[in-house]
Amino acid sequence: MALSKKPVTGMKDILPNEMQIRDYVISVIKETYGKFGFTPIETPCVENIENLSNKQGGENEKLIFKILKRGEKLKLETATGENDLVDGGLRYDLTVPLVRYYSNHANELPSPFKALQIGNVWRAERPQRGRYRQFMQCDIDILGEPSNLAEIELILATTTTLGRLGFRNFQIRINERRILKAMASYSGFAQEDYDSVFITLDKMDKIGLDGVEAELLEAGYEKECVDSYLSLFRGIREAQDGLAYLADRLGTCLDEGVKENLQEIMDSVRATKASQFELVFDPTLVRGMSYYTGTIFEVAMPEFGGSCGGGGRYDKMVGKFTGNDVPACGFSIGFERIILLMLENDFQVPSQPEKVAYLLEKGLPGQELCRVIAKAQQARSEGKQVLVVRMNKNKKFQKEQLNKEGYLEFEEFYKNPLK
User: Fold this and answer.
1) What does each C-alpha distance from 324 to 43, 242, 298, 317, 348 come to in angstroms?
2) SS3 263
3) Distance, CA of 139 to CA of 309 (rounded, Å)
């Protein structure tokens, strides 16, 4: 039986053209984030299963690729459940590994610590456009900064990067978890029902206000609570300033200073942004991770029709590892979705070196071969990209294939120079 030549479902091979774009995007990301003071780090792809299953990752905890114990630790005959068989898992995001990393090395790191992490993550979910089971994530995080300077820097760094990659007129949607909770409290929902209500609210862009109403009523919530809740969203649509309207309606249900803090973030970003985008307050923005404690934000690109990145503040997560809370905030670019859009728009990597292909006839004498290689080395030292390959029988097809890889100039070398 022949071995399968296709990758595992939900994972993909990356061809040279896409790899060039990916490398270019990573270089822009590293350069831009570096200018904002972010430091590259790396964490293992495997984490302890207890860290991944600590009820902080929302729905992603159901999608973990789990790893069996090995050797003597794996005792199938006495195992009574999954916990007896599994001790690790592939990371489903970069935030949990970052927090573990910070908790382990805090004494060796500056404060605040600005981290840049780029790496693959894995989720056992249903593949679809722009969504895979193995995919690259690109995160920036600031740990140890309690003020909204963290949010402002994260949004500016991310939007500057997207602007440098050629994206225009995208949206940054912003909200606050404390506003979400205040709206639910004002409407009379029980605190233990908040997460369920937010899951339904998160579908607003797909099912609309009427769909959210129907789903909440179907779930058994009192009509008075649902009507009060939805009246807030209807009022925001009619208000000139949705944030001010909400703060006024919610009154003492909203913690003091939340409105002013969020307004300052929005005003600061709008006044200092370096790329073309719109920053909008969106009270329907939820974000799926339950570890968020304050500001949350998301990148929306009309050409993709969905989120292309997001993040927020998670001030309680370090405390899960150390017992002492540390303020933390992060922003993740939707790397794979950005690459998909660039490929669909036939993006060409700028400032590529001149590409030259040297085609060598089979049987070229050793002395002549050395001369060609020396010539290639000289051209490379001058900044050119030189490919030295044997000439195929179908030379026309070979050149067509090389053209697709960006080789527009050719030199041919034969055993008989008269050719």
Assistant:
1) 22, 36, 28, 9, 48
2) helix
3) 10
The pair of three-digit structure tokens given for residue 44, joined into one six-digit string: 């293992």
Alpha-carbon distances of 250 from 178, 356, 397, rounded to whole Å: 11, 66, 69
Each residue of 197-215: pLDDT tens digit? 998 998 888 899 999 999 9
CA pair distance 419, 412, nearest whole angstrom: 9
3-state secondary structure of 84: helix
Cα separation, 165 vs 308, in Å, equals 14
- 186's CB contacts (< 8 A; 6+ apart) are 228, 232, 249, 250, 251, 253
Query: Roughly how many angstroms between the first and final C-alpha of the chain, as a whole number?
Result: 47
CA–CA gap between residue 58 and residue 121 (Å, rounded): 16
Among candidates 54, 40, 15, which has minimal Cα distance to 289? 54
Report field, pTM of the whole predicted structure over 0.85: yes
**Token pair of 173 as six digits:** 């949607």
Both structure tokens of 146:
């309690």
